[in-house]
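A protein record in our archive is deliberately plain, so that people and models can read it alike. The record that follows is passed on verbatim for readers who wish to inspect the format.
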Amino acid sequence: MFPTRMLLASDGSREAANAARLAIRLSSSLDSDLHLVYVEHMPTFNPASEPVLMDPELWLMMGEQAEGEARRRAGDIEREIEEMGGRVAEVHARTGRVDAEILKLSEEIGAGLVILGSRGMGRLKRAVIGSVSASVVDHAHSSVLVVRGGGADLPGKILFATDGSKDAKVARSAVTELSAATGSDVYVLYVLETRPYRPFLGPEAWEGWEANLERARERANSFVQLEAARIKEDGGKVADAHVVFDDPAPEIVRLGEDIGADMIVVGSRGLGGIRRMLLGSVSSSVAAHANGPVLIVRGGQESGT
């Protein structure tokens, strides 16, 4: 399932260095080519206003300087990766809006996985300006691995959160392959969200509601046990399976912390722009709030490109 081409996006920060270490280990363990991209931020303007606001010669000079800086920084990061014992198949130096250039390049080279570090951001700052990692998670057509904290080693414990969707089935394949390649223990989790239904229940409905919840718990337990069995049958290692009732994203993050997960893996069904603003996304929220690496798996990517 894992792609033969991975794209590491680095800005030279400490978090990016951790992402690079994990990318080296993953590309080696999974026999994937590792591409590197460094993007030097270059401001963009409305084309109608640009001739008024900018001297064309000054704009050209700024572009040349940005391109030179991008090549220099990309070369420095490549050497750092080589000193870590890694090998870069191809180095890409870009200028422009960082998230847009990462997304564009990932499609150009057919990357099946984008890897990048994230420093994390406060809720207000994230809402106002977003972050590169959040934008890539939301808009990439490929799977995305966001590395936060000190997660630079291959995972010993993987928390796999599944909802039975198409992307979750692809994520299960990724988890199985990763577990088989690294010897990682897999913890399977299913979160049954009940919160949206509670406001509609009066006191007289609680008795029947609790009975329905118990039946739902039994079905959910059967489901996660089946998922665990499939992972085992395909060569993965399963340590435990969990079912909880509550809001999915916080519960995934909480259980990840409780079991000491080295990586959380979730599928992403994707959301349109309006729906994302209204509802948010479980995968995006987990990537934003987890303390360690989060792999968001999307179905349908070309794993053999």
Summary: The beta strands are 5-9, 33-41, 90-96, 113-117, 143-147, 157-161, 185-192, 237-245, 263-267, 294-297. The first strand starts at residue 5 and ends at 9. The domain at 5-297 is CATH 3.40.50.12370 (Rossmann fold). Residues 121-130, 270-280, 301-305 have pLDDT under 50 and may be disordered.
